[in-house]
Design brief:
Blueprint lengths: L4 E6 L9 H12 L4 E6 L7 H4 L4 E8 L6 E5 L15 H12 L5 E8 L11 H19 L15
Parallel strand pairs: 1-2, 1-3, 3-5
Antiparallel strand pairs: 4-5
Helix pairs in contact: 1-4
């Protein structure tokens, strides 16, 4: 049976703070959130549309080189662009491919963009990014274990 929720961590663990997506999935695996499947990859591919089938919600987790710290949690909708033309595609394009393939709207989807600072090849996760990751994991842990309707009460921006 397909879990109603899918969380996909995107990033390269060999590129410093780009490891935030996979590190988030590692942290969630230890928490074992109910009714949730966890995946990780270096980058999104159009083929991920197949993993979205039968889901109620999808959360894409990735590092952000800019934006608010510790993270930003925001809805993402299917792109209106005509198609995917690269090997790495943004979440909106995966959702658009889903819509084209299945002929139905994609599941409710969000992007959790965790603020990173250093993306050098071979660099470790920076201390500042690790702190942002902890805040993001606390938020996701609450969100993924909250009862129905409780999710709306959680702050989408992290601590203020």
């Amino acid at each position: 049976m397909t879990a109603p929720r899918l969380v996909i961590g995107i990033g390269n663990p060999s590129r410093g703070d780009d490891a935030l997506g996979p590190a988030c999935i590692d942290g969630l695996e230890a928490l074992a959130p109910p009714r949730t499947e966890l995946l990780t990859d270096f980058q999104l591919q159009v083929e991920y549309l197949l993993d979205l089938a039968g889901r109620r919600e999808v959360i894409f987790v990735d590092a952000a080189a800019g934006g608010p710290a510790p993270f930003r949690f925001a809805p993402v909708a299917a792109s209106d662009r005509p198609g995917c033309s690269t090997h790495a595609v943004p979440p909106a394009d995966v959702l658009a491919a889903y819509r084209r393939h299945y002929g139905t709207p994609p599941p409710a989807s969000h992007v959790l963009a965790i603020r990173g600072y250093h993306f050098d090849l071979g660099a470790p996760l920076s201390a500042a990014a690790a702190a942002n990751l902890e805040a993001a994991l606390a938020f996701l842990s609450q969100r993924l274990t909250a009862g129905p309707g409780a999710e709306a009460a959680l702050s989408p921006q992290g601590p203020r």
